[in-house]
Amino acid sequence: MEGMDDLQMTCFQIIAAVGTAKSDYVNSIALAKEGKFDEARELINEGDKAYAEGHDVHLKLLQQDAAGEREPVAPLILLHAEDQLISTEVCKLMALQMIDAYERICALEAK
Amino acid sequence: MSKTVNVLIACQSGLTSTMIATRANRAMGERGLNLLVDSMPIRRAQAKLEGFDAVLLSPGIKHWESELASIDPTARIGIIPMRAYGRMDAPAVIDQALELMDEGRRAVAEGREPESAPAEPSPVPDAGPERGPGAKTAPSTSAHSARKLVLCCGGGFSSSLLSERVQEEIERRSLDIEVEWRSLSQLENDPVEADCVLIAPQVSPSIDRVRENARDVPVALMGMREYGSMDAAAIVDRALVLIAERALSR
Q: What is the CATH classification number for the domain harbouring B14?
């Protein structure tokens, strides 16, 4: 069973990784707004790599939890990590849609 | 004499930055360094940039960088790398803050930046829930020559266990610092070309002469404990803070 310190470190790794991804997704929207669609999509891919790292670390937690190894009380940082994981996923969904939307807007403006 | 160096770490909600700041302050306190790390959620930080000598952003809010730079063009802002943040690497974060301050000073001194650099206009702030997504990241700091730390313990011997340890510590932290040894006689008579000078306790009676000769290069004593136990980490910390304090006095 992971001690509290280990759990804290694990959460930090997740938060750092998915946070980096979220930031990339937000920046990609701004790039699309400037008409840089290829760069925007490239940045989404960069974000995905960071996200994957966080996801891998999280998988460890899931496996431990499935095996019944868990702390009696979920620390705030764990809640934060879970929250960041899901909201980053939502961020990516929106970013992809917005890149497409800006692409169509740019095409319309060019006419 | 020494001013407190104030560093701000900001993250989205203030939770992770507070945990890292606590670690950093504990480490600084243990080493007796005059450096204070504060932490804030980004929404509060954007109004408080002025009070800090360096502002470091968690990787999760790097998209805020250009917005902050336009709020306060004189702020020295950096983004903490993902892995260092994930490891809660407080010493690495401190090093980054000190390097940021030093780079700011050098940019001003070398004329690469005016004293208060005008910011690029930020993107129209209506894209999404976050104010000011940063498509334009601040320009990366241009390459600069390594800082130089000069050490002296009287005799001027260049190879010693302490010298090796200081080198190793610098490499371990990936710092851009050259280390050289000088004899007391050199430090009292020759031009001193360095970013900071540290002298061993046994040479302390000569510190005033060294300071006079060194002009505006900061000179400080290595502590009895850190020199005696060859505490390379403490010595490198002291050098970094000296370099940073010099940046603040401009």
A: 3.40.50.2300
Q: What is the pTM of this model?
A: 0.69
Q: Is B174 left (phi over 0), alpha (psi -120 to 50) or beta?
A: left
Selecting among A36, A41, A55, A80, the annotated active-site residue is A80
B195 inside domain: yes
Residue B158 and residue B236 in one domain: yes
Nearest-CA distance from B135 to chain A in Å?
Answer: 5
Determine contact, residues B54/B78, Cβ cutoff 8 Å.
Answer: yes
Residue B136 lies in a domain: no
B224/A92 Cα distance (integer angstroms): 55
If you average pLDDT over residues B17-46, what whole number do you get? 88
Determine the pLDDT at residue B165: 87
CB contact under 8 A, A34 and B135: yes
Q: How far apart are the first and last CA of chain B?
A: 15
How much is the ipTM here? Answer: 0.89
Q: Is the pLDDT of residue B121 over 70?
A: no
B37 CB-side CA count, 13 A: 26
Cα(A51)–Cα(A49) distance, integer angstroms:
5
In chain B, % of residues over pLDDT 70: 81
Domain hosting residue A62, numbered range: 4-110
Q: Is A58 among the catalytic positions?
A: no
For the segment B66-79, the average pLDDT, to the nearest whole number, is: 93
Task: Determine the number of helices (DSSP H) and then strands (DSSP E) in chain B.
Answer: 10, 8
Give Cα separations from A43 to B62, B64, B82, B86 (angstroms).
Answer: 13, 16, 16, 21
Q: Which residues of B touch A30 (CB under 8 A)?
A: 63, 123, 127, 133-135
Question: Per-residue confidence at B28, pLDDT binned at 50, 70, 90?
Answer: confident
Domain range for B191: 147-248
